[in-house]
Amino acid sequence: MSEHPAPERNHAYVFAVQNALFAFQMIEEGLKLYVGLSYEILKRSAPSPVTFNFDPPAIQNAPLSRLIKMFGGVSANNQLIGELRKIEGWRNFCAHRAYTHEFMSRQSGAPVSVKDVEEVQTITTFAVNLVERIGNDMLTLRETHRILFRTEHESDSEAFTPQEISDK
């Protein structure tokens, strides 16, 4: 009984998917930070008797679709929100179906097409752009957060990180 050599892995495709997944993780982290800072600002600035309570672990454990919905509740950047919604399907494909796609192409002996690799690379570039835009939107938010959480003994140039705030 002869052994058949294992079909060659589609390295370019696997590498492209890995890069895409990293970009999607960066989007999720950015959204978690943005939503968390926004919720802390809302909690601090709510006038009495109004209260604003939130569950930080719910933010940390939220999937991308929920994070986008939460982000939509605290951001006025409708264009960014719409573009984030567009990448959800790609994120889910890369996270849950890309391996099957690559494995099945190996089993059939047909390599993943160059078009498939280029498509994943295009969505990765788009996702990296979204990461940058989330970061740009966060700059003003961080300044507002810093001002609200400053104490009487601190100068305007001192700021807290979200971890430092939760430790106080």
Layout of SSEs?
Elements: H1 11-45, H2 56-60, H3 64-74, H4 78-96, H5 98-108, H6 114-148, H7 162-167
Helix pairs in contact: 1-3, 1-6, 3-4, 4-6
Structure notes:
Mean pLDDT is 85; it is low at 156-160 and 164-168. The chain is built from seven helices and no strands. The relative contact order is 0.17. By secondary structure, the protein is mainly alpha-helical.
Intertermini distance: 69 Å
Q: How do the SSEs run, as a string of H and E?
A: HHHHHHH
Secondary-structure-derived class: mainly alpha
**Please, what is the average pLDDT?**
85
Give the oligomeric state: single chain
Rg of Cα set: 21 Å
Fraction of residues in β-strands = under 5%
Give the overall shape, derived from the CA principal axes: elongated
> How many helical stretches?
7
Helical content band: over 70%
Identify low-pLDDT runs.
156-160, 164-168
